[in-house]
Amino acid sequence: LRAGITGSKTVVTKEMLDFIDKTSAGGAKILGGFGITDGEQAKLIAPHVYAIVAGSVFVNIIRENYNAENPKDSLPIIQEKITAKAKELSC
């Protein structure tokens, strides 16, 4: 219920949550994603969906922390940041 592309930050609105609730009322398992980047968003949407899907947020962590000159040095930093973000998004 958002115009745009994956990876853009989503603003969770009451209208969005109402739409999700109406859509899932028939028993559909709704997945929420597209722009979920922080724990606050995840906590808002989690009660309304079967699961939260996050992808671009992790791709951005890799892109922002990858060191092409020393790839091996990047790995522990990327692992730490991805683990922390996954914990933040888990409700």
What does the radius of gyration come to? 15 Å
Oligomer: single chain
Helical fraction equals 40-55%
**Uncertain spans:** 1-5
User: How large is the share of residues in beta strands?
Assistant: under 5%
The coarse overall form would be: elongated
Number of domains: 1
Kindly state the number of beta strands.
2
Widest β-sheet, arrangement of strands: 1-2
Distance between the termini: 21 Å
What is the ordering of alpha helices and beta strands? HEHEHH
Note the main sheet. Answer: 2 strands, parallel
Query: Mean pLDDT, nearest integer?
Result: 87
Number of helices: 4
| Class of secondary structure makeup | mainly alpha
Structure description:
This protein is mostly helical. It has one domain (14-89). The protein has helices at residues 14-24, 39-45, 56-65, 71-89; strands at residues 31-32, 51-52. A two-stranded parallel sheet has the order 1-2. The longest helix is centred in the last third of the chain and has 19 residues, at 71-89. The chain is elongated.
